[in-house]
Amino acid sequence: MSEKKGVMVAGFGAVAVGILLFATRAKAAPPEPPEPPSPPPPGLATLFGIVSRADTGEPLSGVNVSLWSPDGLEMLDATTTKGSGSFLLENILPGSYTITFQKEGYETQAK
Fold first, then answer.
1. How many angstroms separate the CA atoms of 99 and 101, rounded?
2. Does pTM surpass 0.70?
3. pLDDT tens track for 12-39
4. Which one of 16, 24, 44, 82 is at 20 to 30 Å from 36 when CA atoms are compared?
5. What residue spans define the domains of the chain?
6. Contact 72/81 with Cβ under 8 angstroms?
7. What fold does the segment set 7-110 form as a domain?
């Protein structure tokens, strides 16, 4: 039985998306994020962030990031983190959503 590793996510968004932090335990500060994207068009939002290991702060590439409807029944958008651990979801209508982070060998996070 393999032990699942914790994931830390620092998200930076426009149009009141805010900062997200979730981890099973954080021992290292998250890496400095790359330059944020340009502001979204009026009436839309952008979700940008970095996914890293909770125990080392090392960025994680290949993490599947999915944006779900508030009831969790419909996936609205998805992307995969780059080598720097960064991800970007654009042209999102402002509102409440569930965001999931999944990678083989790590515990799935949903916020």
1. 7
2. no
3. 333 333 333 333 444 455 555 566 677 7
4. 24
5. 7-110
6. no
7. Immunoglobulin-like (2.60.40)
